[in-house]
Backbone:
């Protein structure tokens, strides 16, 4: 066996194989091509099937979709099954054939669910696929069917069976396609590759794979099947579940290390085959309709989706190449608590470095025992830009999970969902709502009203003049926090099971721990672990605003709180002096005691409220997180001016990053503040997004500095960290000459995007940040 | 022994600096310098006392400073912001109302323990990256007691220390610093007496003799030369540099390439930058590096 450490060190200077280099170019080229969409399918719903329960009709729709999906393999690619067929210039859609009655749709609509309400952010159980195969799962279903007379259970089991048959048919169709292509193939080598893929798909996903190649093909086909049926799912910990197959192949001499790296590269590249240029993709979308929908959402915003801020189609177009394809590598082994780094961990990170693409969204778990060579490899990869891999600290996340009552072994197996929230892969049903903390302060000062459009959003807590101490104000804010959190939790508990009215998910349920065992679809609360998340937005500004008020109003008595509110109401016009005063107060992110004390208090109380709510509802597990994802512009757009000097509708800082200009003690100060924020009771996570220009990380010394940051992040108790390496002048150059910067990527709060494809607002956001040198 | 009542003026504490030593470092910049290098890229470091900087490009013409200033030093005339420094009493009231960061004060009084408290917070980063604290200026020797006390406190915290100095100051005080300094970055700017006086202002003999004295008490000296095209990068000066290194048995030299943005801050101080645009000959630098005497390692920084 090859020594991993040596391999990790040598690959950094290696280059992709000819095949991989070719595929990278193909993917970039394909982004610009306008493809036809697959044709609409015949409805599943008819007089006959109308008598069946919706879950079975949904399964039939999934099956039909998988049966009808065109099959393909890209030239030179070794894995079959694609969302976008390159040669045919054809793109699959996520549409399903009609399966629901209008009255079912109406009823679902009443609770906010449509036929495509599958939320996506879930990580299916790939171990189940690789250990049992569809035939093994079907056997398990058949055993259950024999044991239960419960109608609902039987319907679900039947449905799951139908969906699995669809997946098997998808594989069979690919075998036929591959054999046909092999027949017409002149090149003997290529012919053998096509035959190898055909042979693999005869074995998998029906049965457990025999080789690393088959394991990858099986995992890929399942991922594709999900994407085709509107399930935008994360990928979990592939370096853990695929490695045993690689290990066996290497030990038994079936594969060389070079071949293994190429297989890994090809697998990782598959996630990019559907990437599209934003403009090209936007041409294919009805943006006007979407904007109207967003405007209506804003008009009709409710307490539990108050975080649904002023979305704009800009957000949709910017996110075009984000399909929640998260991959988590590294980290502890659940059973033993030992480090799980293996050769595939190294190979996957290397694939990501080589291809310089935005998918899959790569994250690495690190901890006190993470080997030095892996940290170096991460550092070298980070230097290629785009803010990936994202770093997760096992020490803190696992502690937070156990704090919320999850057993240690399960907690050690955490991965992420479609964005960055931590969840337990293979067993979690996940949903989240958002909590704009800055609004909680806005309401406390403004009779429960929004400053942007004056709408009353929560009950009036009384006039601002009635607030005599900082504590009274703080309690008002907490009260509002609690109000939204209670309302969100209650909403989730009351409606989660109603997803089953129009959006049951039999295929996904077959690949989760819980549904088959309990005889309940995931949407009927069948998963082992049902997680309701609340994500607090704008929290850095809330900390800064509270700190500023505390200091200026209650300590220095510079002005009254009423005056501050008046200034906010006027968006500081005519109050410029006060604005200077407020914005010069200590801020979160500079290791300043005053601001950090407020932050520590707020994060602690936030987690405590969540814990209390969690105890109230045995049906679900409620956990807190802090962040904005890529919606830092939208969150700000719906929020009035704030007492930290931020103007009305101005964007907020991303995730749990300090506000712009607050990092007066640099990257170290930001990390020191961040790690004080009770992160060990925030299990979903709260990313700190840092950036630095290339000069800070150049050369071996730069690698050493990045490793130093990682070690300190682990040691001090950070949870999630992204480090983007970007130079403002390069971003400016890229704006001017986009064609020369096709692989330039930037971090978008939850994923990465190609810089040159972003909206002007987002581009400016990134340039402004990068201009600070570190940010 | 804690030294009471020492205070000093610092114009910046920079966290995560990369050009002043290994690992993750925090750099303390003390204010005040007896020299006036024409190429100095921190002109605000030369005056010992706090001073007001004005970055006109950041001004939004909001006029707050105009009404704040009791001396009429801040004005808007013909839609343009004017700062009449000769009327300014340095009361800094204008800087407190400026929202845009156009008016700021450079220089803040600290006690050594206040400084150490801020920089020692970064200790885990130092430990994990092989970094530490670098003290630079201005010229550290203008506030030698203050700097020495900071160094002493840092060593008590077991933090790695680097001193960056022009060597222009009191010999005894310099040698005292060596007790708590791991590495000296010692400037060699110009070796020739007349040119030193002309471009830098002062007597080069002070620098060279201090170097000799310092070498007696420490092995850890790096010579650093700012590469100013046409001024310090002449073959004669480089030979002189190498000679000095050999004489003093110094084995490491850093070339600091010309900072092209050096001029920016002169305007903020109400001064003009005399040196103007200069282009550096990278090839020439490489040649110098290759021709270094045996036993001397040359690094081109930046």
Residues:
């Amino acid at each position: 066996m090859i020594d991993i450490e040596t391999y990790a060190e040598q690959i950094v200077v290696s280059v992709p194989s000819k095949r991989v280099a070719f595929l990278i170019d193909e993917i970039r080229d394909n982004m610009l091509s306008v493809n036809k969409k697959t044709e609409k399918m015949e409805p599943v719903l008819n007089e006959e099937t109308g008598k069946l329960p919706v879950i079975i009709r949904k399964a039939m729709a999934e099956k039909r979709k998988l049966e009808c999906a065109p099959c393909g393999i890209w030239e030179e690619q070794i894995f079959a099954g694609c969302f976008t067929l390159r040669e045919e210039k054809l793109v699959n859609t996520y549409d399903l054939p009609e399966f629901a009655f209008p009255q079912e749709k109406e009823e679902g609509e009443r609770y906010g669910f449509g036929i495509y309400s599958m939320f996506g952010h879930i990580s299916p159980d790939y171990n189940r696929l690789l250990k049992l195969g569809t035939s093994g799962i079907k056997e398990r279903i058949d055993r259950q069917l024999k044991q239960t007379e419960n109608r609902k259970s039987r319907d679900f089991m039947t449905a799951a069976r139908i969906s699995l048959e669809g997946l098997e048919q998808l594989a069979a169709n690919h075998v036929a396609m591959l054999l046909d292509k092999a027949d017409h193939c002149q090149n003997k080598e290529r012919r053998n590759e096509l035959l190898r893929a055909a042979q693999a798909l005869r074995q998998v996903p029906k049965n457990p794979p025999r080789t690393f190649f088959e394991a990858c093909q099986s995992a890929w086909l399942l991922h594709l099947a999900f994407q085709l049926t509107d399930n935008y799912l994360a990928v979990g910990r592939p370096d853990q579940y695929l490695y045993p197959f690689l290990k066996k192949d290497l030990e038994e001499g079936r594969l060389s290390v070079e071949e293994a790296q190429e297989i890994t590269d090809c697998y990782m590249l598959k996630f990019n085959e559907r990437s599209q240029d934003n403009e090209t993709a936007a041409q294919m979308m009805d943006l006007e309709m979407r904007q109207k929908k967003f405007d209506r959402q804003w008009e009709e915003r409710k307490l539990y989706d108050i975080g649904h801020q002023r979305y704009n189609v800009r957000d949709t177009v910017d996110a075009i190449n984000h399909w929640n394809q998260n991959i988590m590598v590294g980290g502890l082994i659940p059973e033993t608590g030992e480090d799980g780094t293996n050769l595939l961990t190294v190979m996957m990170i290397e694939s990501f470095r080589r291809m310089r693409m935005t998918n899959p969204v790569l994250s690495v778990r690190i901890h006190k025992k993470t080997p030095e060579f892996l940290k170096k490899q991460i550092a070298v990869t980070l230097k290629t830009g785009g803010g990936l891999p994202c770093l997760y600290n096992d020490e803190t996340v696992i502690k937070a999970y156990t704090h919320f009552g999850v057993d240690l072994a399960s907690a050690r197996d955490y991965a992420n969902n479609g964005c960055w929230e931590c969840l337990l892969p293979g067993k979690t049903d996940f949903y989240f709502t958002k909590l704009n903390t800055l609004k909680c302060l806005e309401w406390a000062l403004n009779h429960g009203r929004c400053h942007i459009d004056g709408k009353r959003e929560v009950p009036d807590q009384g006039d601002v003049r009635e607030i005599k101490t900082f504590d009274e104000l703080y309690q008002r804010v907490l009260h509002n926090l609690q109000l939204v959190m209670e309302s969100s939790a209650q909403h989730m508990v009351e409606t989660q099971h109603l997803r089953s009215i129009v959006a049951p998910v039999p295929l996904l349920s077959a690949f989760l721990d819980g549904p088959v065992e309990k005889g309940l679809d995931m949407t009927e609360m069948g998963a082992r672990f049902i997680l309701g998340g609340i994500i607090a937005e704008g929290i850095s500004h809330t900390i800064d605003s509270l700190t500023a008020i505390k200091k200026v109003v209650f300590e220095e008595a510079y002005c009254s709180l009423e005056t501050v509110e008046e200034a906010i109401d006027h968006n500081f016009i005519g109050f410029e002096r006060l604005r200077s005063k407020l914005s010069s107060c200590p801020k979160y992110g500079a290791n300043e005691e005053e601001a950090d004390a407020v932050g520590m208090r707020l994060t602690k109380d936030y987690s405590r409220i969540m814990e209390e709510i969690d105890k109230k509802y045995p049906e679900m597990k409620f956990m807190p997180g802090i962040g904005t994802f890529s919606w830092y512009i939208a969150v700000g757009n719906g929020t009035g001016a704030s007492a930290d000097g931020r103007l009305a509708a101005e964007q907020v800082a991303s995730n749990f990053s300090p506000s712009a200009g607050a990092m007066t003690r640099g990257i170290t100060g930001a990390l020191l503040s961040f790690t004080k924020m009770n992160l060990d009771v925030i299990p979903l996570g709260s990313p700190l997004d840092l950036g630095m220009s290339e000069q800070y990380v150049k050369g071996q010394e730069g690698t050493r500095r990045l490793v130093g940051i990682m070690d300190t992040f682990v040691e001090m108790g950070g949870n999630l960290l992204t480090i983007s390496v970007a130079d403002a002048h390069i971003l400016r150059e890229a704006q001017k000459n986009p064609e020369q910067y096709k692989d330039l990527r930037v971090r978008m709060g939850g994923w990465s995007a190609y810089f040159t494809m972003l909206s002007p607002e987002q581009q400016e956001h990134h340039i402004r940040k990068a201009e600070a040198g570190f940010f | 022994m804690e030294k009471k009542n020492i205070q000093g003026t610092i114009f910046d504490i920079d966290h995560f600096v990369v050009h002043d030593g290994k690992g993750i470092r925090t750099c303390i910049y003390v204010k005040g310098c007896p020299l006036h290098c024409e190429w100095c890229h921190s002109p605000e470091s030369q005056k010992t006392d706090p001073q007001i900087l004005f970055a006109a490009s950041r001004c939004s013409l909001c006029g707050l400073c105009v009404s704040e200033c009791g001396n009429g030093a801040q004005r808007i005339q013909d839609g343009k912001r004017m700062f009449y420094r000769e009327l300014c009493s340095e009361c800094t009231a204008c800087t407190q109302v400026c929202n845009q960061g156009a008016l700021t004060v450079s220089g803040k009084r600290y006690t050594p323990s206040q400084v150490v408290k801020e920089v020692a917070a970064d200790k885990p980063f130092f430990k994990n990256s092989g970094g530490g604290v670098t003290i630079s200026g201005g010229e550290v020797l203008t506030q030698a007691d203050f700097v020495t006390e900071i160094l002493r406190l840092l060593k008590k915290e077991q933090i790695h220390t680097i001193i960056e100095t022009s060597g222009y100051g009191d010999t005894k005080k310099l040698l005292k610093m060596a007790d708590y300094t791991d590495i000296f970055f010692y400037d060699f700017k110009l070796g020739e007496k007349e040119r030193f006086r002309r471009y830098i202002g002062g007597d080069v003999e002070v620098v060279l003799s201090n170097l000799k004295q310092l070498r007696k008490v420490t092995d850890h000296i790096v010579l650093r030369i700012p590469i100013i095209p046409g001024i310090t990068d002449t073959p004669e000066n480089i030979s002189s540099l190498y000679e000095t290194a050999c004489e003093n048995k110094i084995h490491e030299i850093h070339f600091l390439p010309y900072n092209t943005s050096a001029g920016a801050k002169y305007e903020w101080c109400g001064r003009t930058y005399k040196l103007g645009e200069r282009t550096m000959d990278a090839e020439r630098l490489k040649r110098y590096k290759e021709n270094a005497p045996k036993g001397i390692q040359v690094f081109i920084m930046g």
The CA atoms of residues 76 and 540 of chain A lie 48 Å apart. Chain A has a mean pLDDT of 94. The longest strand of chain A covers residues 428-436. Chain A touches chain B through 33 residues (CB under 8 Å).
